[in-house]
């Protein structure tokens, strides 16, 4: 029976994986190695500030093993959403690491393709004027020229099409900018003539590495095997098992709907899927359906700087203060506002998080019974770092010595774990672009090129 | 009565993109899944009360028989990682659901 094996070494490039699992995976003779490097999980900062999710050292460690492993077996290696956010600077950061690896291993010369995923503002503005851009979610602001101007750069999630183009031209190594997480793996299946629905569904299950196992982790290797009418997944580490529950649960993972999944130009319907246990650690999946959508929508992502932050971490153990913590915090806030009447209040915000009461869930917390001690994190968000820092210093000193009604402990209200107590955080970003854009050609906005530093 | 956490095999929360949070509950036995489904406890009004949500903030409650799973998705009041957010990954918003009592 015709089959195709794809090795997924880990959930995010740089999260690491055991050498023994990777060796076991290579030993099973995969036809490709595909690793997702991206996520929006860590918030908008990485995209906005053009930084990576993982350290350079961690990324290099994984990349080296994956590139050498692929070269040894003469199989393609694909990296999705390079550098985490998949923008130009993130891709270049990844290429710089690859260049170093190739320099250290001069016999390794993979023919390398780069696929960019940066979308020029002019392109988006044109589509906006044609009514071809829509917010992905009711709470996302409508896009306009000013928001685009403030956004540090927009990327879009590519589908399989641009990847197929370079894969069919014999790429050994493909470095993708932002990609729909399952797309790089799906491209390998589609390129070999397998069902696109099964290929995309396999991509969805394996994009987080061994998180679809029990015990689950993003830091271990998984194998996916495509057949004509199903796919199977199994862990490369004998300590883990795929169960029907663990695999079905991963199909649900991070999605708003359990069986309707949207990607670039596609909608997957997994309502008729069956999950069958094969042996003790392998699961077979059948019945994945998918349709091409008309029009073809791609998801745009962008972030802009919205404030600067300074914060303080402090402990409170005094039961009298704990019993009225929010009341006292309000009084502290008011006092600081009064101390700085010369500063427009709209330029800053003072927030308190009371861990041990409702720090995690805030207003959504149904049980805000306080514990016997609280961790209070307070922050000032302002339009400059200098203002955030100055005001936070005042919040700290006011809070420390605030003489609230009924106080018996007059020497100080806060236990600081660190000196100095105030931490300048830097810029805070928000997702300013999270929209769908209608396109005609699925590859045109994702230009590919052969890397001059790769092999021929 | 049993707490949902004692009936479920898996119970978790996570971002679904930066603007939504999704709660997942899975059961290992079909019988338990049916019991929770038929209890009528997992309703929009109960979830909104538990999570202090307006009905308009709830995107949907889905029962998925094939996976013996329930998914509940709602809008974040603040998008992931921006000013005022307290759970960037949305990974610790499931605890109240654990305490729901199922007859």
Integer count of domains of chain B: 1
CATH topology (fold) name of chain B: Alpha-Beta Plaits
- CATH first level of chain B: Alpha Beta
Oligomer: heterodimer
Strand ordering within the main sheet of chain A: 12-13-9-8-1-2-3-7-4-19
Largest interchain contact: A-B, 48 and 45 residues
Supply Rg of chain B.
Answer: 13 Å
Mean pLDDT of chain B: 95
Give average pLDDT of chain A, whole number: 96
Estimated helix fraction of chain B? 25-40%
DSSP strand count of chain A: 19
Binned, the helix content of chain A reads 25-40%
What shape does the CA trace of chain A take?
globular
User: Outline of chain B, from the CA principal axes?
Assistant: globular
Strand line-up of the largest beta sheet of chain B: 2-3-5-4
Main beta sheet of chain B: strand number and arrangement?
4 strands, antiparallel
Helix and strand topology:
The complex is a heterodimer of chains A (456) and B (103).
Chain A: E1 4-8, H1 19-27, E2 32-36, H2 45-48, H3 56-73, E3 77-80, H4 88-104, E4 112-115, H5 121-129, E5 133-135, H6 145-150, E6 155-156, H7 161-167, E7 173-176, H8 183-191, H9 196-206, E8 222-226, E9 231-235, H10 244-252, E10 260-263, E11 266-269, E12 274-278, E13 282-286, E14 289-292, E15 296-316, H11 319-323, H12 325-339, E16 348-355, E17 374-382, H13 385-401, E18 422-439, E19 448-450
Parallel strand pairs in A: 1-2, 2-3, 3-7, 4-7
Antiparallel strand pairs in A: 1-8, 4-19, 5-18, 6-15, 8-9, 9-13, 10-11, 11-14, 12-13, 15-17, 15-18, 16-17
Chain B: E1 2-3, H1 4-7, E2 10-15, E3 20-26, H2 30-39, H3 44-51, E4 58-64, E5 69-75, H4 95-98, E6 101-102
Antiparallel strand pairs in B: 1-6, 2-3, 3-5, 4-5
């Amino acid at each position: 029976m015709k089959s195709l094996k794809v090795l997924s070494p880990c959930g995010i490039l740089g999260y690491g994986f055991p050498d023994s699992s990777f060796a076991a995976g290579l030993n099973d003779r995969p036809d490709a190695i595909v690793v997702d490097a991206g996520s929006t999980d860590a918030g908008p900062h990485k995209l906005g500030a053009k930084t990576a999710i993982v350290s350079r050292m961690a990324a290099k460690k994984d990349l080296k093993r994956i590139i050498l492993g692929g070269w040894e077996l003469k199989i393609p290696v694909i990296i999705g959403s390079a550098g985490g956010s998949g923008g130009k600077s993130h891709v270049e950061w990844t290429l710089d690491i690859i260049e170093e690896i190739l320099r250290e291993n001069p016999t390794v010369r993979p023919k390398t393709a780069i696929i960019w995923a940066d979308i020029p503002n002019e392109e988006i503005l044109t589509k906006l004027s044609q009514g071809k851009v829509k917010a992905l979610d009711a709470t996302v602001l409508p896009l306009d020229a000013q928001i685009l101007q403030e956004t540090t750069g927009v990327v879009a999630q590519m589908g399989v099409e641009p990847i197929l183009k370079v894969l069919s031209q014999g790429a050994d190594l493909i470095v993708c900018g932002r990609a729909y997480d399952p797309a790089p793996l799906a491209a390998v299946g589609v390129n070999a003539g397998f069902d696109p629905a099964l290929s995309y569904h396999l991509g969805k299950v394996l994009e987080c590495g061994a998180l679809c196992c029990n015990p689950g982790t993003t830091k271990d290797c998984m194998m996916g095997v495509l057949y004509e009418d199903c796919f199977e997944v199994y862990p490369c580490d004998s300590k883990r098992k795929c169960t029907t529950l663990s695999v079905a649960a991963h199909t649900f993972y991070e999605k708003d709907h359990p069986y309707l999944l949207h990607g670039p130009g596609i909608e997957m319907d997994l309502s008729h899927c069956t999950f069958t246990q094969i042996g003790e650690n392998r699961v077979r999946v059948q019945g994945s359906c998918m349709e091409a959508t008309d029009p073809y929508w791609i998801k745009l992502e962008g972030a802009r700087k919205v404030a600067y932050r300074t914060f303080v971490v402090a402990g409170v153990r005094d039961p009298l203060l704990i019993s009225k913590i929010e009341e006292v915090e309000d009084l502290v806030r008011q006092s600081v506002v009064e101390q700085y009447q010369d500063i427009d209040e709209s330029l800053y915000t003072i927030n308190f998080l009371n861990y041990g009461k409702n720090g995690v869930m805030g207003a959504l917390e149904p049980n805000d019974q306080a514990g016997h001690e609280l961790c209070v994190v307070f922050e000032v968000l302002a339009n400059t770092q200098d203002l955030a820092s100055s005001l936070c210093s005042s919040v700290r000193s006011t809070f420390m010595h605030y003489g609230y009604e009924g106080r018996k402990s007059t020497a100080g209200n806060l236990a600081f774990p660190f000196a100095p107590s105030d931490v300048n955080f830097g810029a805070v970003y928000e997702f300013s672009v999270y929209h769908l854009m209608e396109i005609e050609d699925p590859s045109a906005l994702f230009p590919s090129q052969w890397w001059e530093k790769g092999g021929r | 009565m049993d707490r949902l956490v004692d009936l479920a095999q898996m119970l978790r929360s996570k971002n679904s993109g930066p603007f939504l949070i999704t709660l997942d509950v899975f059961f290992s036995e079909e019988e338990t899944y049916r019991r929770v489904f038929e209890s009528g406890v997992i309703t929009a009004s109960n979830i909104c009360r538990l999570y202090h949500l307006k009905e308009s903030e709830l995107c949907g409650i889905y029962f998925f028989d094939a996976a013996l799973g329930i998914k509940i998705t709602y809008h974040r009041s603040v998008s992931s990682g921006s000013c005022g957010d307290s759970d960037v990954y949305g990974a610790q918003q499931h605890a109240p659901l654990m305490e729901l009592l199922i007859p």
